[in-house]
Structures are given as C-alpha cells and as structure tokens.
Amino acid sequence: MAMVEEMSDYVEEEVIIVGAGPSGLAVAACLSLRGIRSLVLERDDCIAPLWRHRTYERVCLHLAKHHCALPHAPHDATAPTYLPRDDFIHYLDAYAKRFAVRSHLYREVRAAWYDSAKERWVVEAINLDTGRIEWYSTKHLVAAAGENDEKVVPEVLGLDTFHGKVVHAADYRSAEGFKGKAILVVGCGNSGMEIAYDLAVAGASTSIVVRSKVHLVNKEIWNVAMTLYRYLPVWVIDKLVLLMCFAVFGDTARYGLCRPAVGPLTMKLTTPAYPVVDVGTFAKIRSGEICVVPAAIKCVRGSTVEFANGKQHAFDAIVFATGYRSTTKQWLKVQI
After folding, report:
1. Which of 44, 174, 244, 333 could cysteine-pair with 113, CB 3.0–4.6 Å?
2. pLDDT single digits (tens) 225-268
C-alpha cells in the first residue's frame, strides 16, 4: 500500500474488469449502456484470446446461437445455428466495437486488493509490452478471467523420456501431420472427445483415456434440455434427456462410456463437469476407429505408455485434454 500512496500516476477508473473474454465484454457493454465508464485489462494481445489462440480449428459452438448471444446483441438471422470459431470471434470483435469497449491489452494483473480506508480497489498490473508496473484505482472490480486460464497437465512418471510429441489441448490446432500415427488423447471431456474425432477422421490411429463417467449427448438433445429448463423441473428434463440419449446412442457403457448416477442437467448445474456433446466421436468408437482405454497412465518409457491396468502400447504423440484452472485466487487478495 505504501507504494501506491507514494505514486501520483496510477490510473483512476470507475470500474475495472479483468479479462476480455465474452463475460468481460458483456459486463463492459452493459455498463456502457448505463453510462458507466469501465476499463478492461487483458493479459493477451487481443480480446477473446481463448477463442483466438487456444481452440482447435474445427470447433463450433455446442449450443444454438440464440443460447450464446451476449446481452443486447442477438446473432444475425442468417448466421449458422452452431457458429464456427471464426464466426464467433467476428461476432465478439463486432460486439466490442459496437459498445466501444475500452481495453488495455498486454496487462497481466499481479495483485488486487480493497483499500478500506479509501473505499477503493487497488490493482497492480504489469505491462507485458514494456515490462513496467502499472497501478490502477477503481471503485468497482470485476473478475472475468474465467476458469480456462492456466493449462493443467498431470504429472506422469517418465513423461520426459517420451520420444514423440506432447501437447496440451490448448496448443492443438488440427490433425495435420498425424495421419497414420498412433495418438493417445488423455481426457474425455468435450475437448478430448472432439480432438480424438478430428484425429480419427484424418487417419490417425487414435486412442482415448476414459477414466471418469461420461454423459454423452448431441447438440439437438442438449438444446432441447436448455429450452425446457425455463419450463420444467430439472429432474424431469434429466429423464427426458436420458430417454432421448438411449434412443440415439443405445447403451454407451458397452463401449466404455459409463454414465454418472446423477442426471446430465443436474450434473451441469451442481458440479464443474459438463456433458460431452458428441460431434461424431461415438460412431468412431463404436466402429473401432477410436479405442477407449479405461485406465490412467501409470508411466511412460520412451515411446511406450503403460496403463494402470497393466497394458502397454506405443504412441507417436500424446494430447493432454486435461483442462484448465482459474488463476483468479492467485491475484485477488480477498477470500472468494
């Protein structure tokens, strides 16, 4: 605090928003419509960096566009029902321009705390372009950095000896260069399942580690669930969704994809987990083009991966679709 009190060049703002993803942009736009000035601080070199820099090329929104519009800006009627990545990025760019969202890019927030004496938040950020520390003072602080911030890669014994390529899903763009190679995808969430499909379509010999139980749905079923959520109890929607899923997929447990005891919508609302929206992966699993490995990795020795069930296989590359963690608690110096 002493450093801030001695400085005269810190920036005064009414509201500071940390994170220029869809949530941060939406908050800035809503404030702007009410005549409230705000500033968005973003660590990356652009708005919506997750969509620009950390998504694979084939990704599309899993929900219909009317479920994915930001406040005061419905998607164009001529837009695809399920927007591809580039279309959604264009939408976010236009949104920021339309509502004149003010942003400082290349600003990594290092700390933020509330000064009760001054009744203002103090924000310390580093300008990644110049390396200089910048100070901000604001009446209101909005943490909009999201959950998908820092890559999570599990510790695997011997991974440093692996002869092939190791990438996180955040760095995977396409299956180019993987045709004819043996690829192991670790993680059976939406990213893992879709990357496995992308690899299989490209002609890679694809395996996917499935350790947890999975609710498999498709886009149409899940959009029905989202629509019914306004009108029916969650338990009723869960039963309807499971009936539709059985009609479409049959018993997925026969192929190594066991469903959780809790219903899919209940799971989404009460846990961090999310149903897997099938984009064609299940058909590849059913046909044998994608192999389900129902065990964790025990260790890696050269090109060989040994699993907890004792089986061993050689792979040319490993893709860790093992998620992210939020870094908000690292810089926000209050209990949340």
Report:
1. 333
2. 999 999 999 999 999 999 999 999 999 999 999 999 999 999 99
